[in-house]
């Protein structure tokens, strides 16, 4: 569990700089350049995520059960993950109305993903892993909304084709992950 917690601290800690130390972040970018900042940020993120995932896998070898979720909650998770994937796509597809309306769909996607997975995972390692992401996403969303209020940007032009593409990409990614990749990568089939 120690490796997972260390990985979460590194990964989510690095991703929390904008929440707790935005002025320091801006100073580092000004002093070292945006490219150097992004390289260091990415290195920290990759190392932290790798440790968190590896450590998470280790917690599954010797689980400590806190509660045993009802099997029926798996259906709720399957349902919740569809909008999570659509919001994830919305973070990247330009000019879609979902991003224009929500502002920060990536963080909302992480919130839904983490909450949904807390519903169906009752082991201590699972609870710590997903709760850490949920708390981070809540704080990051709040900080991002505050930054948006302080520095409002011009309204984005949206297009129906971009919005439909966002939904289609999210649905296809969801289907691919739910019906194939989740079982292969995580070892737990979503359906079956």
UniProtKB/TrEMBL annotation:
What are the transmembrane regions? 37-59, 71-92, 112-139, 160-181
Please, which domain of life does this record's source organism belong to? Bacteria
Start and end of every NnrU domain? 3-189
Originating species: Vreelandella lionensis
Keyword annotations from UniProtKB, A to Z? Membrane, Transmembrane, Transmembrane helix
Which cell locations does it reside in? Membrane
Q: How does it sit in the membrane?
A: Multi-pass membrane protein
Protein name per UniProt: NnrU family protein
Q: What is its main location?
A: membrane
Q: Is this entry keyworded Nucleotide-binding?
A: no
Q: Name one Pfam family in it.
A: NnrU
């Amino acid at each position: 569990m120690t490796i997972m917690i260390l990985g979460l601290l590194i990964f989510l800690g690095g991703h929390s700089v904008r929440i707790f130390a935005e002025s320091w972040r801006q100073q580092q970018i000004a002093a070292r350049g945006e490219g150097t900042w992004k390289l260091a940020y990415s290195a920290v993120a990759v190392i932290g995520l790798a440790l968190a995932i590896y450590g998470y896998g280790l917690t599954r070898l010797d689980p400590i059960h806190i509660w045993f979720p009802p099997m029926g909650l798996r259906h709720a998770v399957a349902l919740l993950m569809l909008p999570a994937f659509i919001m994830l796509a919305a973070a990247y597809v330009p000019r879609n109305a979902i991003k224009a309306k929500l502002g920060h769909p990536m963080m909302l996607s992480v919130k839904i993903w983490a909450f949904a997975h807390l519903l169906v995972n009752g082991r201590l390692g699972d609870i710590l892993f997903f709760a850490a992401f949920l708390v981070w996403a809540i704080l990051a969303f709040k900080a991002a909304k505050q930054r948006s209020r302080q520095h409002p940007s011009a309204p984005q032009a949206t297009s129906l084709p971009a919005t439909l593409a966002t939904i289609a990409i999210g649905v296809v990614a969801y289907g691919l992950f739910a019906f194939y990749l989740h079982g292969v990568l995580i070892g737990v089939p979503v359906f079956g």
